[in-house]
What we know:
The chain has helices at 7-17, 20-43, 64-73, 97-110, and strands spanning 47-49, 55-59, 79-81, 86-93. It is of the alpha+beta class. The protein has one domain: Aspartate Aminotransferase, domain 1.
Amino acid sequence: MPFNVNRLAEAGAVAALDDSKHVEQTLKTNKEGKAYLYKELEALGIEFIKTEANFIFVNIKNNADDLFLKMMGEKIIIRPLTSFGFPQAFRVSIGTMEQNKKFISALKKVI
């Protein structure tokens, strides 16, 4: 199933939590990425919910499944939230700054 992990990946994630330097860097990357994505989504007039997680709930007020296909064409994967009862929303993971910029560039291209 997509978005699931296997036992080996889970063991790696648990081990990573013991690496305080890695955890600090991950939190820093997430914080910086979140600020960048908030700024860019606001500039585009796109509604979203601020988060404490590593992903953002985005409401595009259009069909999220259609946007998913367009973004796939740009080699960007988002997760439409249609199956959760939000047909006009998707979630996007906060990545590295390079990944976040690619996401915003693709989003600007397809909306």
